[in-house]
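Reopening this one. Same input as before:
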Amino acid sequence: MRRHPLLPALASVAMLIIAACGSAGSSAAGDGPTIVVTTSILGDVVTNLVGDQAHVEVLMPPNADPHEFAASARQAADLHEADVIVTNGGGFEAGLDDAVAAARDDGVTVFAALDAVDRLGDDPHFFTDPARMAVAARALADFLPEHVPALDTAAFRHQAAGYVADLDALDAEVASTLAPVPPERRKLVTNHDVFGYFADRYGFTVIGAVIPSITTQSQPSAGELDRLAAQVKAAGVPAVFADTSSPEDLADALADEAGNVRVVQLYSESLGKQGSDGGTYADMMRTNAQRIAEALA
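Same output, byte for byte:
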């Protein structure tokens, strides 16, 4: 059978394309260590801590509900291949607990950020307080070089120290943004119990939550909604704060029941899409502070 004269050339081109694709995949992951992070919020923080010193893989996409998210087969495999796994902890990412535990049993080191901070009971939402996030980031910056030798460098320490300083500055910026809100109006009603750490840091009182739970997986009864509406009226609360990552139907129902109450969306448990006003952790906290101040001041 006569071979076409172009076949060898085409085969060579095909091999070059395959090699180039393989090379591109390797460079995307980088030659350094791999850190797998469960949530988009912590993914942004870890990325800022390590800079280009490591590859960071974030399991949850923007606007995901972390209480319901489950790992794909590929992501479960990636957990086993990680140098370190960073989780929120405290049952926050319940759908990932088994996959993370299996990787830990397989010898992968796991860092739970919640364990590094002063906790408020069983509430896992420490990240609504940037001061606590700075504490967790500092602990992670100390932890990583001990467990990932490739990060035991001056460049990593410089990068991490700079970002921790940025988080400290963010805390001061949020406090300044909230300063116009008088003490008697520092009252929060949220979609579910997510802003306890924020309230603790900046002197707010949580009047109640539409879903009286630290997860979005519960549902309020009609009686619970009626009682909360009465509390909102009695407290003179002008706004109910909903989650961008969860439906706001219940918050709308509460606002209608209470009357003269706005529904304002906040980034509570997930970052927004890249480029949005909640696309990074710092943007998320700035946006939340601005929206709370505008609604309550």
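So the earlier flakiness isn't reproducible anymore. For the record, Residues 131 and 172 are 9 Å apart (CA to CA).
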